[in-house]
Amino acid sequence: MFPYLRLGPFILPMAGLALLAGLWSGLSFTEREAARLKIIEPALSNVIFYSLLAGLVGARVGYALEFPALYSSNPLSLLSLTPTTLSPGMGLAVGFIAFAIFVQRKAMPIRPTLDAIAPGLAVFMVFVGLAHILSGDAYGAPTKVPWAIRLWNEYRYPSQFYETFIALTIFLIIRERFPKPEGAGLNFLLTVALSSASRVLLESFRGDSVFWPGGFREAQIIALIIMAISFYWMRKWMSLDAVSTAE
Amino acid sequence: MTESNLSSRKKRWEILMLMSLITGILWTVASRVPSAVGAPLSSLPSPREGFPAPDFTLDTLDGSRIKLSDLRGKVVVVNFWATWCLPCREETPALEKSYEQYKDSGVVILGVNLTSEDSLNDVKAFVQEFSLTYPILLDRDGNVSNYLYQIKGLPTTFFINREGIIRTVLVGGPMSETFIRSKIEALLQEFP
Fold first, then answer.
1. Nearest chain B residue (CA) to A245
2. Which of A11, A42, A205, B168 is close enough to B159 for a disulfide, judged by CB 3.0 to 4.6 Å?
3. In this complex, do B31 and A204 lie within 8 Å of one another by their Cβ atoms?
């Protein structure tokens, strides 16, 4: 683990740098895929950029809404650079809504646009794994397996390495022409479904899970729901394609 | 591709999707940990979020001693600092203000000075300059900061809940008063 790099008076969080690199790689893969699918690249880049910005603003406002009295008396704190004052759930929701609105306003074809994002999203997940390796976050549960790593005073599953390896495998499946369901939008849904499936599998090795009554892990339940939604839309879009081919 | 080909491919994918979903559900049920509900994530102390805060006992500037575990039941903010650290200097007024505001609500702020890399006279002057009222602890041999809390840069601040579990770690600064208060408020709401 290598969480921080000290450069004189500055402390650089390495995980943050890995995520930035992931964002850059994701965008460049998205641009290449957009060109291959003949989608107007600048339009897609703008949509992604503004959606990310909206997500960031949403995440900060979401956090501020948890403490309305504090932030209304000092609204300038909304501009603080501290990443621990962000609400990830709200950020994701606002980012998604913004993306949907921008795509609609620019009259972009939804399913090919989602496909253009698929390899970018898959490569970004690889960098999320690398960020976890660097920071030591998303750590494994204590174990006695021979390949356990010593982290945070205990021998643990190397969950960050599992995560990175599986994300890399998913990226290769998405990027390369493995047998996949054919049709616009299906590559994106497959990326989401595979990423959710990997979370269902890997969460069992994590030591930082949030548990629900009955001992269920929160992340597994949410990932299962996302997986089911992805499959539902895959089935629906495959049916639509079958109908249009028959016609 | 013919219609029957498409239909059989679709069927194959549907079976695969259904099987993946059923496997996922079975795996989720099989990997349940009923004993983990409400239990701390880890029992071994470590200086990171979700872990019990490593215990320490240090002398204060006014000659008394403070043991972290004696403060169990209170929200504790442990701020590692040094007089030569500029962001530490900048965030000190916000820490003092927050302490004055929350000290009667069961909140303790501990300023752990890296005395092994500082001078006691400078520490005293610093405390006077900012009229600090929260306890200043002296880490004379650097054991607490270097080994127990593995401090990589200054300032570093740990927000610890009433059960002694670290909830937020912030490396770097300066922290704003809003940030400090939002973290304290969240911890006070956790176990009212």
1. B3
2. B168
3. yes
Straight-line distance from the first to the last Cα atom of chain A, in angstroms, rounded to the nearest whole number: 57
Judgement on whether residues A133 and A196 belong to the same structural domain of the protein: yes
| Residue A16 at interface with chain B, using a CB cutoff of 8 Å | no
Same domain (yes/no): A116, A83 = no
Do the chains contact at A200 and B27, CB–CB below 8 Å? yes
Instruction: Mark yes or no for CB contact B153/A11 under 8 Å.
Output: yes
Query: A84, A182, A212, A241: best mutation site toward chain B, by most B Cβ within 10 Å?
Result: A84
Give, for all 192 residues of chain B, the pLDDT tens digit.
566 776 787 888 899 999 999 999 999 999 998 877 665 556 789 998 889 999 999 999 999 999 999 999 999 999 999 999 999 999 999 999 999 999 999 999 999 999 999 999 999 999 999 999 999 999 999 999 999 999 988 999 999 999 999 999 999 889 999 999 999 999 999 876
Q: How many domains does chain A have?
A: 2
Polymer length of chain B: 192
Sequence-distant (≥ 6) Cβ neighbours of residue B17 within 8 angstroms: A193, A231, A234, A235
Question: Global pTM?
Answer: 0.87
- Whole-angstrom CA distances from A53 to A59, A84, A119, A145 are 10, 17, 21, 43
Residues A102-111, mean pLDDT to the nearest whole number: 91
The token pair at A86 is: 């962000």
A121 contacts A193 by C-beta, under 8 angstroms: no
Which residue type sits at A125?
M
| CATH number belonging to the domain at B57-190, selected among 3.40.47.10, 3.10.129.10, 3.40.30.10, 3.40.630.30 | 3.40.30.10
Whether residues A130 and A16 fall in one domain = yes
Say whether both A16 and A63 belong to one domain. Answer: no
**A2 vs A15, A147, A246, B152, CA distance in Å?**
9, 20, 56, 10
Global ipTM: 0.87
Separation of alpha carbons A74 and B170, rounded Å: 21
Q: Tell me, yes or no, whether A122 and A27 share the same domain.
A: yes
**Spatial separation of the C-alpha atoms in residues A44 and A57, rounded to whole Å:** 20
> What domain range includes position A90?
42-108
Query: What are the pLDDT digits (tens) for A31-86?
Result: 999 999 988 878 888 999 999 999 999 999 999 999 999 898 888 888 887 778 89
Query: Which of A51, A74, A108 is the last residue in one of the domains?
Result: A108
A50 and A31 in a single domain? The answer is no
